[in-house]
Amino acid sequence: MTHLTLFLDSLQESSTPILLDGVSEQKDEILFEYVQYLESRPDLWHMLTLYVSLLPRPKIQEYYPNVLVKVLDDSERKLMTGQIRDLMPRLELPLLRKIVRLSLSAPSGSIGDESEEVMDKIKCNSLQWLLHQDDHMGDALICANILFRDLLLNEEEDKTYVAMTFMNDNLPENFLDLVRQTVSPIIEEEDENSNTVLNLGMERTVYTTKVDNAMTEYVAYNSYLEAYGTFEDWKQILEETPTALEDHQLPDATNLNETEKNIAKTNFLRSWVKEKKKHLEKTLHAAEEARLALHNVLTHPGGWLSADEDEFANIHRSDE
User: Fold this and answer.
1) Which end of the chain is more exposed for a tag (fewer CB within 10 A), N or C?
2) Cα separation of 248 and 239, whole Å?
3) Where is the signal peptide (predicted)?
4) Could you state, in order of their start, the residue ranges of all structural domains in the chain?
5) How does pLDDT run across 59-83, given as a tens digit for each residue?
6) Predicted TM-score (pTM) of this structure
């Protein structure tokens, strides 16, 4: 029935149009029922995007992100992202933006019965929707910042470690470089009607401003998390550094003459000083690393003690 109504509807756009009253409306209703059937069959999800692409655009934007937010396997994400790019390129970024934001805003237990910890992992992994294509990196950065804010401002639990894990394990090491590389062609594009510009789903100047602000914000998070990590390393070293060198004891001098005792004592002191110096250097190095990292938090461009206040005075973080 679905394919019959699709065929009848297509006759309206044939070389010799045949108009049938009510076919388009019936097609949309029957097609949506079939799409819902495919949704109920995860083994048929590889066909889902094709039939969804035949729905009216408003219906696609309302319905499809709520389906795709349930896709947790990255290989399936990659497949469906490619299908969306091929079948409805104008909706690619708007759909992916909504999918990720739905994931990031989901409370615990909203996707199955996951715990808070599992839900955090799902949110971190949801960024993969925007990391498969280079030209999505700007949006990936904006969404990453949304998650950083959510984790670092959590008042019920300290999720700094989750934020550190997210940055280290889920985001590219050269993330900002990738963002700059992908935004440059957008800035340099002269044709306002090119696919590069039209596929953004918003005004080019709005998009580039959002990405510029997001890069500054990301630098702040990176500086803070690096400082947090190095400070924790320093504290760990302090805990592991012995306050007394129990293994260093004067040898038994019972059978030694005075000269031998002095030599043994001198060797002991030399060894003791060397060992203490090693622990001291390790502790001071860790302390200096922590100091520099904390200093970067305060003085990075736009930071609390930055001298470039005017340059960053108008930064806003409207991500929607």
Assistant:
1) C
2) 19
3) none
4) 226-320
5) 999 999 999 998 989 999 999 999 9
6) 0.70
